[in-house]
Amino acid sequence: MKLTTRFFIIFVVFGVMPGIHAFAAGQRDITLQEVIALARTRSVDAAVAANELRAAYWEYRTFRADLLPEVTFTATIPSFNKRYNSYQREDGSYTFLRDDNIMMNGALTIDQRIWLTGGTLSLTTSLDFVRQLGDGAANRFMSVPVALRLNQPLFAVNDVKWNRRIEPVRYKEARANFVSQTEEVAMLAINYFFNLLSAREEYASAAQNVDNAEKLYEAAKVKREMGRISENDLLQIELNLLNSRSSLTSGESSVRSCMFQLRSFLNLPEDEELVPVVPEQVPLADVNFQDALGHALDNNSLALNIQRRQLEADYEVAKARGERQQINLFAQIGYTGADRTFGAAYSNLRANEVVQVGISVPLLDWGKRKGKVKVAESQQELTRDRLRKERQDFNQNLFILVERFNNQRRQLELALRADEIATRRYDSSVETFLIGKLSALDLNDSQENKDTARSKYLSEMFYYWYYYYQLRSLTLWDFPTDSPVEADFEAIVK
Question: Per DSSP, what are the bridge partners of residue 360?
């Protein structure tokens, strides 16, 4: 019988095993895929991952907006002044003059970062108004119909250029990290699901063992009265019955504990009894390491993280070198006018031009700036070494995971066969004991082997699913369908 059609055939006994009905009230059957889907939408871990993605999205949006022209309007309407100001006469003495006025001004500015050079280009239009109060009251207007300004650092690091290289990688990293986190949420869901499934199976097995032990104990008492078994065998059967009842009690507690954990993780009502449905199929695929590594390097957030950190280290070196000297160019061209009336202030315009170069060169800083460059270069080399180590560790871990996943299919097939054999052997042992051809110790050993085989089968099934989603998390690739693992980012960031 093929693996895909034989999974957990034995588990149909869930519905007929004695004692399992203790959990029947208000129960809900739930599949592994339902648990994973609910975990991705309702769990706290999924909410954290979504919020981290939204934060990264708006950081990226802010970066993109910083590259676009910024329009700013500033105004003072009005400013009223009624005060005395100090004034120095030609002879050097001071006096105070009365200054009563109303002032208003407004300016509209368009700023644009220059990607190529890292400077700022500004286009401005402004109007200033002053009304002198008191004796000789008069109005004055000053207009700047247009002014073009350039503020350009020379030989300094171009922040705009570096941000254009770093920020897109950072956002891609955040997107890839979100997808990886959703797969890690699925891994948590698998863990909680199989914990409950194993607990219910152990409880069902314990209930069956109690039922069988009770029947065997009654039969053993009759056989003892007939002298067909020893007192020691009877006591062993009774001990098995007591142990089975103890396992049943602890199993019930374990089921309720695991069910609470799963409900809490999925944010489900506390009165809902969950019955995990055994997966009928598993995703089957043979994974090649080189293919897995190629997908991981293309999609995994670690690869993007390495690229971003390398860029950031290079940026710090460039910034430290640019700070060793500071030269700034400021230039302005435009027109201005001033007059007593609004119209005249825009009629008689004059050129308004400024060119200014500021230089700051340290003559003696005792090696401070050079030290900053050396520190940045050392950090750059350290980052490169760390990234190489992280890349090596990642490749090794991925190789081990691929080997485990490929091997796990065979382990699951063997565990299924062992579970079937152990169950048949136990049933045969019970019949053999009833006809007096098997000792109580051998029967007990058969029961323990049955329970161990069942537990191992569940464990191998868990590891298969866990490795599968772990592989998806690292490569962001679904190998059974040979397609990428994607998410609707636009819907998430809304």
Answer: 326
